[in-house]
Amino acid sequence: MKHKILLVDDDVDLINLYQPVLQNAGFQVDVAFNAEEGLKKFQEFKPEAMLVDLAMEHFDSGFVLCQKVKNTQEGRNIPVIIMTAAGHETGIRFSTQTEEEKNWIKADDYLDKPISAQDLLQYVTEKLFKNK
Amino acid sequence: MKIENAKILVVDDELGMREGIKRLLEIEGHHVDTAETGAKGMQMGSVFEYDLYLLDLKIGDYDGTQVLQKIKSIYPESICVIVTAYASIDTAVETTQLGAYHYISKPFSPDELYHLVNRALERRWYILEARRLREEQERRLLEVAHEKSRIRTIINAIDDGILVINQDKQVVLWNPRFLKLLEIDRKVAVGDSVYQLLPEKLYEQFDRVFDQQPQLKAIKQEIVIHPPAKLVIMVNTTPVINSSGELLGVVSVFRDISELKQLDLLKSQFINMAAHELKAPLSAIKGYIELLIDATLGNTLDQYSHQLDRSRERIDALVNLINDLLNISRIEAGTVRRDIEPIDMSELLQNTLDFFRNDIEKRGLQLEQQIAADLILDADREEIQRVLTNLISNAIKYNKESGAISVNAERNNGYIRIQVSDTGIGLKPEERDHLFEEFFRAKNPLTRNITGTGLGLTILKKIVDSYAGRIEVESEFEAGSTFTVFLPASDTN
């Protein structure tokens, strides 16, 4: 049984980059191009993990999607990873080091953009699905 | 000092006396008028104020005191000398109580007359001088009052709030703008304590100016007064020092910098957004390159070629974005060099459509056009070309395969009206509201593969606005959009 990953990003090229690489590595990948579509796909596709871009329709679309997913019964324990370049743009660095931060942000981890497809694959296999 | 070349009126019924006095005084350089009756004397003496009146006490049937009283009533400061016969000397003395300056009794010698006239004219000089000084003083007082009200007017007209306080920290002077900025509703009186009047943050600043040693420095500080209203005020407090170096009080100038702060914020938001938009294509291009380099991912030649195509598209988009950013900055800085000339809009629009003919055919779009002739506009050709290019390329880009484009241009109430409709993806109402915002792009599955900078319509609107034109948008999601641009037609049309 292939692990299911939902990839949410508004940049079609990044989807084009990440999706085949993850698929070639044996994952089942569905994609969404904005937060609204992301939530729908989450309900239909029932992923085991979500990789979500932060700034899509709005600058915080990724957070909003993450909150919505985490507030559902099925989504509570699904790892949601936020991908963002906001740290470089605003000088604000997100972190999920402490329980408080994790509780407030709700996301399980952050990936600093830009991320190469190779690095993303490495992250997914070695961290996200290490024990699965 | 005395009056030289005085104007003198002699009123006497005796011809010999009249002419004798006139001759004597004219020798001295004076100008002498004469009247032979009391009535004529009164009439002549009232027309203007003579320097000296010589009045006979008995002018035929007339009483000289009547003439005296009449003249004194009109010119209270006039100098009247009574000429009298020795017999009526008592009456002459009485006349001094009625305002006569002096009297001279007939007969008199020329020297006696000169002596009296000289004294009288000396007196007259002092009266005139006193009058001049008095008038000058009145004028100055008036000027001072004027000056005060002028300073008041100037202070009241200043758009910054101004407050002056004395060394006891009591308010001395302020303008309406100050009250408005700090939202002080209550009546303020000279002598009110600043501690009662002002928010704590502000009188702390006064305290700092008063407490510093030496008390010479001005203090400048940004203060947020009402956090909910987000009023940011720059307060500049300067000590007022007298010549011995004592602190008399302070002058504070309050400037509302909320708008500047807001602009500052907008600027950083713009930079953040621009950075984000600039980085997005770079991330994609970098990703593709990494895929090409990393052979382990085992892409086919087809995939490589697609990735290179996409990379090139993203690079083109990036270059467009940078050009658009530069354009926006030029338009906003007002450094765009414009060559305003009459432009034949009909021709320019036709040329633009011809330019896009290939793209229109490639997508199988039906083009309908109705362009009136002789639509003349005074504008910069390049800018108007940009507006038309943007409208038409959008209508192609956001259209559906085998859809239609309709282009209309005509005169409309002093405007040239250009309407471009498409049968494309359309806009949701909330998307339409943000359409002209910088970097706004409708993000839905239909726009996913369409590249754009998110600045095209921003630039279009800035150009149209700069010609005092306007743009209207009608749109239905998934059905199509109509953009209508109005630009003022040339007067020469």
Task: Give an account of the 3D structure.
Chain A is an alpha/beta fold. Chain A has one domain: Rossmann fold, CATH 3.40.50. Chain A is built from 6 helices and 5 strands; from the N terminus they run E-H-E-H-E-H-E-H-H-E-H. Chain A has helices at residues 12-24, 35-45, 61-70, 86-90, 99-105, 117-128, and strands at residues 4-8, 28-32, 49-53, 80-84, 109-112. In chain A, strands 2-1-3-4-5 form a 5-stranded parallel sheet, sandwiched between helices. In chain A, strand 3, helix 3 (61-70) and strand 4 form a beta-alpha-beta unit. Chain A is globular and about 35 Å long. Chain B has 4 domains: 7-132, Response regulator (Rossmann fold), CATH 3.40.50; 158-256, PAS domain (Beta-Lactamase), CATH 3.30.450.20; 261-333, Orthogonal Bundle (Helix Hairpins); 340-488, Heat Shock Protein 90 (2-Layer Sandwich). Chain B has helices at 15-27, 38-47, 64-74, 89-97, 110-157, 176-181, 194-197, 200-211, 258-293, 301-333, 345-355, 357-362, 381-397, 429-433, 456-466; strands spanning 7-11, 31-35, 52-56, 58-59, 62-63, 80-85, 102-106, 161-166, 171-174, 219-224, 232-241, 247-256, 340-344, 366-371, 376-380, 404-412, 415-422, 470-476, 480-488. In chain B, the strands form 5 sheets. A 5-stranded parallel sheet of chain B has the order 2-1-3-6-7, sandwiched between helices. Chain A binds chain B through residues 10-14, 16-17, 20-21, 24, 33-34, 37, 55-57, 85, 88-90, 113-114, 116-118, and chain B through 272, 275-276, 279-280, 282-284, 286-288, 290-291, 294, 297-299, 303, 307, 310, 314, 443-445, 448-449.
